[in-house]
Amino acid sequence: xxxxxxxxxxxxxxxxxxxxxxxxxxxxxxxxxxxxxxxxxxxxxxxxxxxxxxxxxxxxxxxxxxxxxxxxxxxxxxxxxxxxxxxxxxxxxxxxxxxxxxxxxxxxxxxxxxxxxxxxxxxxxxxxxxxxxxxxxxxxxxxxxxxxxxxxxxxxxxxxxxxxxxxxxxxxxxxxxxxxxxxxxxxxxxxxxxxxxxxxxxxxxxxxxxxxxxxxxxxxxxxxxxxxxxxxxxxxxxxxxxxxxxxxxxxxxxxxxxxxxxxxxxxxxxxxxxxxxxxxxxxxxxxxxxxxxxxxxxxxxxxxxxxxxxxxxxxxxxxxxxxxxxxxxxxxxxxxxxxxxxxxxxxxxxxxxxxxxxxxxxxxxxxxxxxxxxxxxxxxxxxxxxxxxxxxxxxxxxxxxxxxxxxxxxxxxxxxxxxxxxxxxxxxxxxxxxxxxxxxxxxxxxxxxxxxxxxxxxxxxxxxxxxxxxxxxxxxxxxxxxxxxxxxxxxxxxxxxxxxxxxxxxxxxxxxxxxxxxxxxxxxxxxxxxxxxxxxxxxxxxxxxxxxxxxxxxxxxxxxxxxxxxxxxxxx
Length: 572
Ligand SMILES: *[C@@H]1O[C@H](CO)[C@@H](O)[C@H](O)[C@H]1NC(C)=O
Ligand SMILES: *[C@@H]1O[C@H](CO)[C@@H](O)[C@H](O)[C@H]1NC(C)=O
Ligand SMILES: *[C@@H]1O[C@H](CO)[C@@H](O)[C@H](O)[C@H]1NC(C)=O
Ligand SMILES: *[C@@H]1O[C@H](CO)[C@@H](O)[C@H](O)[C@H]1NC(C)=O
Ligand SMILES: *[C@@H]1O[C@H](CO)[C@@H](O)[C@H](O)[C@H]1NC(C)=O
Ligand SMILES: *[C@@H]1O[C@H](CO)[C@@H](O)[C@H](O)[C@H]1NC(C)=O
Fold this sequence. Notes:
This protein has helices at about 20-25, 30-35, 100-105, 160-165, 190-205, 225-230, 250-255, 295-305, 325-340, 360-370, 375-380, 395-415, 435-440, 460-465, 505-515, 530-540; strands at about 5, 15-20, 40-45, 150-155, 175, 180, 215-220, 240-245, 265, 280-285, 305-315, 340-350, 350-355, 425-430, 445-450, 470, 485-490, 515-525, 545-550, 560-565, 570. The protein is of the alpha/beta class. The strands form five sheets. Strands 9-8-7-10-11-13-12 form a seven-stranded mixed sheet, with helices on both faces. Helix 8 links the parallel strand 10 and strand 11. It binds 2-acetamido-2-deoxy-beta-D-glucopyranose (NAG) (6 copies).
């Protein structure tokens, strides 16, 4: 194995800048309007090509010697003096809890007919890699939003499968060094905007759009490359998109590379990691979910997360085809949805639309007729993946929190000293009430709000203010591809996990942060002094730059804030 070299984020000496003539490739009018005048994209390239050296050269002062070596998590955890090892190149897409090799060892205990193999399965610590996930060969800093909606670097997601099988449906096409996303999907070959307009017509009896139908937050099940979400943005509708890691290779990686919010997930045997009554619309366009199976248990899960007067949009063959067993499936769907007192309000042009009515009398009646078990409907009978605690939050606390984060965000952006377009994919790892995310609402970013499962359930409050998020336990890796976030925010996260056991030590969470971060991405950590001083020591071993600052906390006391930045390195 060779060593590797790096281009430092704060030291651009090593970065050879090349100009990519995108405008020539795709027509100057379109890009002209997106970029304004003098449009061009600059990409910093790695230059070092010393392939035989076993040490690492760092532009600037310090020298690291991190080794390339396949390393597993050992107990007790020790970090080599030379720094955290780097995983071999072939692990450049390593997702610990969606690792096909590991899931394969479990197959005998998984119910494949319920697609359990698509859910999260995290290996025990000793079977997890403990090394930094390297970028693929020829990785380039991602193209910036909004151009990334339509174009991403081909070499960053080096998989042709999706273009081969879904090119005809206009999901994605290959275009020289780029992937091009024309905005299509299986069910909207002619583009998402027309499809979205059609859904608006269906939900408003031809009088308005989805927004006027009261849709603000959407869950897109089986989202593909997330074009649906991208084209709902102009209506100011926010979408949580998910899809499993399955035969449609890397769909979520494409979505995130484009700068569209998405995560890996599957609806199979476990509750989805979202709170009840959170979405005005759940969307399934050929989402490959057998809603009619198992007494409609998965529809009941949709019922749980759907708000009253919310829509279930179903664009799939049972909604319109009369051959094979599609009519039988349709009849089952109708009886299941009627039992839950949903109302079918439209069925045309290959799409069926139900509305979840608030109709207690209907529910009562169906319960008496034994069509439905209300208790089960309300509680839900999927495997409960999280416990909802209730957090009583007063208006004062809420207002103070919002104001506080407005100020912090201003400070953060000053400290990071980046241009407005540099940051797109953001995660608040300990979101509390979503104040940080709300303070970013005027910037061209989207935010994944994460509420740790061992915290109070404030995620419902986050959804209630129109933001999106997910429950997660940071003792386990997150369901995302490597290199998918530009900025991670960890406010008193690491101290919360101080006594949560062996697999969520500071180093474990830092390793996961590093995996999720794009090269040159930032982590903002504010925490107790004991934690921040540990991180200051550890950061260079993870190949992070670290700057220490001080800001006032809510109690107006000075608190250490670390601005860490992942360097742009690669194995050579
Ligand atoms: C890369 O390698 C070539 C030939 O091996 C050498 O001429 C060139 O100077 C190297 N470039 C850098 C930046 O080290
Ligand atoms: C797997 O799930 C199916 C329902 O889809 C059920 O009938 C079957 O009993 C399950 N198998 C096992 C081994 O649990
Ligand atoms: C892309 O993948 C192909 C085959 O999977 C491989 O031959 C090629 O080297 C890869 N290219 C890059 C830039 O990683
Ligand atoms: C939606 O309805 C409007 C008004 O009736 C119509 O002009 C438009 O073509 C419809 N759009 C679609 C996609 O059906
Ligand atoms: C939809 O509009 C048509 C024509 O304007 C009207 O006759 C019909 O009653 C409306 N349907 C609903 C459900 O409002
Ligand atoms: C949850 O909320 C309660 C009451 O507001 C509070 O006392 C408790 O500390 C909170 N728990 C956590 C883990 O934040």
